[in-house]
Write a structure and sequence with these properties.
Radius of gyration: 17 Å
Shape: globular
Number of helices: 4
Low-confidence stretches: none
Number of strands: 7
Largest sheet: 7 strands, antiparallel
Helix content: 25-40%
Structural class: alpha+beta
Strand content: 25-35%
Length: 147
């Protein structure tokens, strides 16, 4: 990883080589990343397998769950090919929203789309494997429940 100075104190540009780890699953960092160039793979360990959860390219953001929920990283992030990221520290994220409210709206749109896609994929799995209605209902109710 190569660090370059960012536009403001709480943001920086970082360059990663192919296969380089951006963050590991369960890391406690809270930075938000915006892909400037290249590709980032989000990988989740599941027993002895690794599942590709998402692929992000130029203009996409990731790291939002840890930033907004203050919880450890759900999965790891790795560069695929040479990759350049804009990294926003939590304070930088708030400054960016204040400077550019459309950024927050665009993030909400993208996050909403991610929820819709996840819901669609869940329903596809339910139909494909003919899961019992009662079990599916329990899962859906637990997703919508307040913690």
């Amino acid at each position: 990883m190569k660090l370059l100075s960012g536009h403001f104190e709480h943001e920086q540009i970082e360059d990663y080589d192919d296969g380089e780890c951006i963050f590991e699953e369960n890391d406690t960092g809270r930075d938000l990343y915006i892909v400037q160039s290249g590709t980032v793979l989000i990988l989740k360990k599941n027993n002895s397998e690794t599942i590709e959860m998402a692929k992000f390219t130029k203009g996409d953001f990731f790291g939002d769950i840890a930033l907004l929920q203050s919880i450890p990283r759900y999965a790891g992030a790795f560069a695929k090919g040479p990759t350049r990221l804009l990294t926003l520290k939590p304070a930088g994220f708030l400054l960016k929203i204040r400077r550019d409210p459309t950024f927050a709206f665009e993030m909400l749109q993208q996050m909403s789309l991610r929820v819709k896609i996840s819901n669609d994929r869940l329903l596809e799995i339910v139909q494909k494997f003919k899961l019992p209605h009662e079990e599916v209902q329990k899962i859906l109710m637990s997703i919508g429940a307040k913690v």
